Amino acid sequence: MQDLPKRKINRLQNYDYAQTGAYFVTICTKDTKWLFGSIDGGTMTLNKNGIIAESEMLKISSHFNYVDISNYVVMPNHVHLIVVIMPAGAASGAPTMTIGSIIRGYKSGVSRLMGFSPWQRNYHDHVIRNQEDYNRIAEYIGNNPARWAEDRYY
């Protein structure tokens, strides 16, 4: 049996991804295919699949208590979002949410509605460490359609 290449570990070692905080997440389509629409004049125009991806994004907070999507953009072949996990309070009995469970739920909902899985196997995340980091990422997300030609996923 051939040795398979080792996959790069995308998560911070020994980090609790259920703890309160903000996380920048990027999820790409399989083979970075343009499945969600197109960029015209610096503006993202969603197609049917893009509308599904956006509507499921907007439902995340209703599916997961103590989770807020503070910023997002659906691009032709990927989505960016800032996921904020808020304090649940130990006495509330709320189940623990992790970035992994939130993203799995999102990807599953989009896949179910599209009738196939459009996603690559994994996703990229970045733990947002302070307000300056948050502001920089929020600006990046907001400007992503206008800077599409410079995007590494273009």
How many angstroms does the end-to-end distance come to? Answer: 37 Å
CATH architecture: 2-Layer Sandwich
* Backbone structural class: alpha+beta
Mean pLDDT: 86
Instruction: Tell me the series of helices and strands, N- to C-terminal.
Output: EEEHEEHEH
Largest sheet: 4 strands, antiparallel
Radius of gyration: 16 Å
CATH superfamily: Transposase IS200-like
Query: How many domain modules?
Result: 1
List keywords for this structure.
alpha+beta, Alpha-Beta Plaits, 29% helix, two-stranded antiparallel sheet, 4-stranded antiparallel β-sheet, globular, 6 strands, 154 residues
Ordered list of secondary-structure elements with their pairings:
Layout: E1 21-28, E2 37-40, E3 43-46, H1 48-63, E4 67-74, E5 78-85, H2 99-114, E6 124-128, H3 131-143
Antiparallel strand pairs: 1-5, 1-6, 2-3, 4-5
Helix pairs in contact: 1-2
What features would you describe in this structure?
By secondary structure, the chain is an alpha+beta fold. The N and C termini lie far apart (37 Å). The radius of gyration is 16 Å and the shape is globular. The protein has helices spanning 48-63, 99-114, 131-143; strands at residues 21-28, 37-40, 43-46, 67-74, 78-85, 124-128. A hairpin with a 2-residue loop joins strand 2 and strand 3 (43-46). A 4-stranded antiparallel sheet has the order 4-5-1-6, sandwiched between helices. It has a two-stranded antiparallel sheet with strand order 2-3. It has a single domain (21-149), classed as 2-Layer Sandwich (Alpha-Beta Plaits).
